[in-house]
Amino acid sequence: KAHWIDAACVGSSTRVKLDINKVNPLQIKATGHGTRQMCLMDKFGFPRTKAKAGKKFFGFQTGDMVKALVTSGKKIGAYTGKVAVRASGFFNITFGKTTIQGINHKYCKLLFACDGYSYSFKKGDGDSSPASHTGVSSPKKDETMKQATLGRSLNVDFFGTMKSITVLSLIIATLIILP
């Protein structure tokens, strides 16, 4: 079973029903910032070389999300994805399983800097670990987990904010009014 569904199982006192078929959970994977060693050490742990070249080129670093609007050449188009930087100024942009090579840095605009994680969405089948594919019960197979014992359906978007906020506000108002 998935860990994110455990958070929805708050008990029978809640009158709200969560429909997990409409939930698109955010998958976060730690990718790191690389393994760049500043310089080589001697047998005593003191530096024996000077620091290597920087890892940022033209204001970009490998792993940054960029949008490239190429206006001339044979690669004309708009590309959004992760960048692999080169000292030459011609970058590779990867989106999905496609890589576009040799995009000039002048066409690239930084969307957000690399933070050491990769983000993706997975349709709400509830599986969160490899163990759930080896016979462990998952919400896809177990119909009772699909309706997570809450009372009414809410639509949940990217950051978990409620689209149908009226149900939530009625519950909160009831809890505040009743002692």
What is the strand and helix layout of this fold?
Elements: H1 3-6, E1 26-30, E2 56-57, E3 60-61, E4 65-70, E5 77-84, E6 90-95, E7 98-104, E8 108-112, E9 117-121, H2 143-146, H3 165-177
Antiparallel strand pairs: 1-9, 2-3, 4-5, 4-8, 5-6, 6-7
Descriptive overview:
With 179 residues, the protein is α+β, with helices and mostly antiparallel strands. Among the domains are: 3-25 and 143-177, no CATH class; 54-117, SH3 type barrels (Roll). Helix content is 12%, strand content 26%. The chain has three helices and nine strands; from the N terminus they run αβββββββββαα. It has helices at 3-6, 143-146, 165-177; strands at 26-30, 56-57, 60-61, 65-70, 77-84, 90-95, 98-104, 108-112, 117-121. The strands form three sheets. The chain has a five-stranded antiparallel sheet, with no helix packed on it. β6 (90-95) and β7 (98-104) form a beta hairpin. The longest helix is centred in the C-terminal third of the chain and has 13 residues, at 165-177. The two termini are 36 Å apart. The relative contact order is 0.24. Mean pLDDT is 70; it is low at 124-168.
